[in-house]
Amino acid sequence: MSLLLNRQSFGKSENAGNALSKEDAHNLLIEWVPNARLRLHMQQVGHLMKCWAHEKENLSDAKQWHWEMAGLLHDADWDQWPTEHCKRIIEELENRNVDPEILHAIASHGPVYFGVEPVSAMDKMLYAFDELSGLIHAYSLMRPNGYEGMDLKGVKKRLKEKSFAANVSRDDIQDACNRASILMDDLISFIIPRQASVVGF
Q1: Inter-helix orientation angle 121-142/100-107, to 10°
Q2: What is the count of structural domains for the chain?
Q3: Which of 3, 26, 95, 185 has its CA 20 to 30 A from that of 20?
């Protein structure tokens, strides 16, 4: 099965600056993603994207929402249409006249799978947060106190255990860090306290 999107251009330039309202984005999430665990993952990645846009990029509230929305909806079609992953959500958002930058971030969150290279800071950080966020959450589920007391050393130990969260690609995580010019230790330390605050719905 190939998930290659077979294109590099997404959306229309005249839609630059457009995003779904928060209400519409959350309604789409609920409608498209019945799996609560996947929905939580997407909310966690969305929150991390917002935090990074605010704390590291110093972006406006509107731009922070663009980053958050990319994270919130990046896996929206995985639950019901895994063989059309990325393709279906991008087409849906194109039909809703969403900013091409948001679409490109979603299209490039797995370059080896979708065939689209992360270019912008938004692209690179969505790719960087995606797999690592999932592994860290999986680790929280096996700890008696969840995220409380979680530290860098514990996460790195789990990363080295190939049998733990085996579906999480360590190669993708390292590649994403390299592309974003971020040390993995720094990214893990950023994720833990911020992701801990997301409880989902």
Answers
A1: 50
A2: 1
A3: 3
